[in-house]
Sulfotransferase family 2 domain-containing protein
Amino acid sequence: MTIPTSRQITSVELMSPRAVAKKYHERALGMVIPRAFGSKSKRKPNKSKKSLILEDYVLLHIGKTGGTSIGRFLRKFRKDGQDIKIKKVGHRITLQRVLEESPSCKVGFVIREPSTRFVSGFNSRLRSGRPAHHHTWSTDEAVAFSYFPTANDLAEALVTDDERMRSAAEFAMQAIGHLRRGYAFHLGGVAPLKEAADRIYCVAELEHLNDDVFRLLEPAGLSREQIAEAFQTEHQAPSKGPALSEKAIDNLKTFWRQEYRIYDYCRKHLVRR
């Protein structure tokens, strides 16, 4: 059985992206596919349902907000024998789950301006996570990127009279992991944040992480000097594609209305409390 090339996928112009994905999904699962699509399209099993062993302080990992750098920092000191009282959890762990499974722990997380998180998340998955990681595309992601080669193309299609392209854009927003799991997924909304305010010990901003990291990692029991010496932000791969147009940004604000509402609430009420 032949696995479709990107040319074959993009040539199916009269099919919806969901139909394209469905058509090729069973062919691709468990089979070696062309390099552009990664080695396998089958997603890793969801391990997030395992019981959480939580520390006194927990850091949520919202995609493209510096979590890899923070995780590397914490692992370094644990490897050196330090008793670090902060645990960084994975991408699929939500605020609600942490609060339910560990009623006494405090929670921290990092936020980032939504449009820059969107571009970073799109480009990261376009590169299969490289250089920091290497997680190959799912079949759905392969279809999404065949429709939208740049983040700007995707954002401009989110609000349009072209029903087919709008459907493709909505499909892509669910297919691409970093875009599917944003603030609404991790934090639930403004109301849950208000209810959990006394459990949130720190909200940092990626744009100011070199300064905010001292508050974020203060419960680790390390000195400011230790944090400053050891913490390094991840290498930022150069952005590919055009910058977001004014139309693209406006579309994002419309489509991601809840993402922006949560982000604005965090900045106004939770950052630097």
